[in-house]
């Protein structure tokens, strides 16, 4: 599904060159639930941006669904994003002057679905996430958890194969965070690959595969048995007070 | 091509961002509004003055005689120069002269009808005088050639005389006594330039015969066919030379023969108005530029404000061109509607002023050109062109930042919270 081979990425910061990713090799298969962890500056957000075709890379190769993603025109990238990827952001990134339903329906607008139909589909998705009564509300009238659920509905509506979530729980309290993670898990159960970036161990421990980044390289990949240990270690911290 | 979905999206955006829409629209509407008022006022002023000139034929010339002040061919100065009927014929035969009317002045003359009477000025003339004066006939006709040939005792009264003597009674065909001689009223007229219509017109031949004028004429009113200032000055020169030879005075002697060339005057005044018009245009263009700067500024801010929205749209699959298209179509829609509103309000106001001026002047004002301000409206093509210019400027001003914003990586656009 996703195949990264020796990905390098650096940013020009004035005269300095900041080498953020120094050769990433990563395989993610259809239906996996992956978290990318790392301290700030480890390159995890950059990696996610490259995965989401929001950013390009300098070296190496990236195959998404068997297709090489490199040097695409903006138009082609936009189309691919629309078809393949759904985004969930830390700061929700809803359009402030559109109500919940319109926000959810927006990706379908770029797919060329007519207004009536896309609003109907949007209502369906809102209903699934328990937000039907809030469909007419504007983003600033909703709580953080509700906004994130709207954002998830928006990410799902174009039926993507991958959901990319950048710190999806970063702006939420613990119980809301767990609700959101529960939703993401359900999405994953439906067969969609979910990749989240987080620095919270408890959140990461809810996924099935943890990719740890350090200084632009993959430090370790935790899965299966090790993951169980990881969970045990961190779930102690999660004991309700 | 017409994508209803796109327009729905644009309309929804406009509806939800009323302040932004208002500001953009207002600067455009205001610019156009001011431009319309400015150009309208300029046009009104220049139309008004032009109309005042048009009261008389622009190509009119007046010639009158006086006393010599320079000795000539052994003749002393202080000798009166007099025109006679044969001078009329001479003048008529000169090249460039279209029509000639000789006039014999009678000063105050007593007009009476029944019990009513009054002193008025009598202008004795040839029918051609009306080519110069361009009086408007309210009733009947002007003096004609047959009147001159047969020395008919007919008179055309000014409107004020007719009202004083006849009140509501019909005047045409009635006989008024002019210095106790009965004259038949054949017409009533108003002079477009004047607020008073206290002149009466009668055939010069009749007047010479009845009021002891023998064959004398006091002055001439002529029209010439000189189109340019140079042509008309040449004709003027020719007339002066001819009379100088015939009536024997020095041709540089301005008091022996006075001439007033309307065209010369008209052209000079029109030059001043040309300058005023240019000045108004400069201010107008300045206003337009201020409007363009205003619109551009707002567009810059709008795009800046929408950078995040652009990022979101791109992240969920909008291509850069669709984002730019959305922003530009929105701005074009707003500026077009606002420009149209400004256009309607501006021209509407000028039309209202025009209407009120006509109303307050009443019927008399419509016929008499005592206004300095006339038809203060703007050429439709100019109005539309300036609106289009503003719209295009707004579009370009929006396009550049929109293109830049659309080319920013969505992740950068989304980063700043």
- Stretches of chain B where pLDDT is under 50 for at least 5 consecutive residues are 364-369
DSSP, total strands of chain B:
12
Identify the biggest protein-protein contact and residues per side: A-B, 31 and 27 residues
Roughly how many Å is the radius of gyration of chain B?
Answer: 34 Å
- Beta-strand residue percentage of chain A: 25-35%
Fraction in beta strands of chain B: 15-25%
Q: What is the average of the pLDDT values of chain A?
A: 87
Cα distance spanning the termini of chain A: 40 Å
**Helical percentage of chain A:** 25-40%
Shape of chain A: globular
User: Largest beta sheet of chain B: what is the strand line-up?
Assistant: 3-4-9-6-8-7
CATH superfamily of chain A: P-loop containing nucleotide triphosphate hydrolases
Gross morphology of chain B: elongated
How many domains of chain A, as an integer?
Answer: 1
Total count of helical runs of at least 4 residues of chain A? 8
Could you please describe the fold and organization of this structure?
The complex is a heterodimer of chains A (241) and B (417). Chain A has 241 residues and is α/β, with parallel strands linked by helices. Chain A has one domain: Rossmann fold. Chain A is built from eight helices and ten strands. The longest helix of chain A is centred in the last third of the chain and has 16 residues, at 174-189. The N and C termini of chain A lie far apart (40 Å). The model of chain A has no long low-confidence stretch (mean pLDDT 87). Chain B folds into two domains: 4-55 and 278-415, no CATH class; 60-266, no CATH class. In chain B, the strands form two sheets. A six-stranded mixed β-barrel of chain B has the order 3-4-9-6-8-7. Chain B is elongated. Chain A binds chain B through residues 45, 49, 52, 54-55, 74-75, 78-79, 81-83, 87, 89, 91, 93-95, 97-98, 102, 106-107, 109-112, 114-115, 154, 158, and chain B through 5, 8-9, 12-13, 16-17, 308-309, 311-322, 407, 409-411, 414, 417.
